[in-house]
Amino acid sequence: MKSEMENDILKVLITEEELQRRIGELGGALYERFQGKRPLFLGVLKGSFVFMADLVRACQLRSDVEFIAVSSYENATASSGRVKINHDLQQDITGRDLIIVEDILDSGNTLAFLKDYFLTKGAASITIVALLDKPSRRTKAIDADFAGFEVPNEFVVGYGLDYCQHYRNIPYIGVLKPEVYAD
Ligand code: IMP
Ligand code: MG
Asked: Ligand 1 centre and the CA of 170: distance in Å?
């Protein structure tokens, strides 16, 4: 049955089944890449929390989990270009192989900033995993090492991604009805 919240969804872009199948593939690829190592999965909050939970279980490596919280959007659908750390790392990452887990790679501002930041903190290597990739919007020269799905230039919600902090708990990726933005 459709929830009240789902009445705001115009269309489904990626179904729950498609998400799970692709995350299984990503987990397998990361397993191959990091076998014998002990990487640190580093989730970029808040958007990555759902993806992170599924990805670490799809990749049965001996590994650690850490989070950093940043914001750049200030509750709009266009990036302000500035990145602010709202919750910093709680451990030393010197010499660690990082797997950055991001919900979506859009302009690239967030990941360009974080990559520099983690390198100055002494990370040994950085691998970027983005569930979604919107290459048409990129303004920074940065790419994901592993991307789940390429999406068109539309604002998407669900599976961790929000609009004004809502819709993160929708289990698939969808596009909102235009009237939702008008309110
Ligand atoms: P970037 O810094 O422009 O690459 O944007 C990265 C962040 O912006 C992501 O981690 C998201 O939190 C947010 N973002 C970008 N595009 C979307 C979208 O279509 N829906 C929801 N959040 C988005
Ligand atoms: Mg985010």
From this structure: 16
